């Protein structure tokens, strides 16, 4: 499950967060582990990603979700491992 913020974190101007698209690359942070993945399926509250590098996570672990905006990765939301 995931939730997107209304605005991108870390920018001086207010930029709204666009919905996640299938095929989009995202970066996930789970505790100290970082990996990127491609969105394979998504609904309004759940998404399935194909991870570039597998990570160990338990059900219920919290995830930070980032997207490339401009030339940097920016925090756009959070989620939970299902």
Which CATH C-level class is it? Mainly Beta
Write down the secondary-structure element order. Answer: EEEEEE
**Distance separating the two termini:** 7 Å
Mean pLDDT: 95
- What's the CATH topology label? Elongation Factor Tu (Ef-tu), domain 3
Strand order of the largest sheet: 1-6-5-2-3-4
The count of β-strands is 6
Low-confidence stretches: none
Q: Based on CA inertia axes, which overall geometry fits?
A: globular
What structural class do helix, strand and pairing data support? Answer: mainly beta
> In the CATH classification, which architecture applies?
Beta Barrel
Main β sheet profile? 6 strands, antiparallel
CATH superfamily, by name, is Translation factors
Number of helices: 0
Instruction: Tally the structural domains.
Output: 1
- Strand coverage percent: over 45%
Fraction in helix: under 10%
| CA-atom Rg in angstroms | 12 Å
Brief synopsis:
The protein has strands spanning 2-4, 25-30, 33-42, 47-51, 62-69, 72-80. With 82 residues, the chain is mainly β.
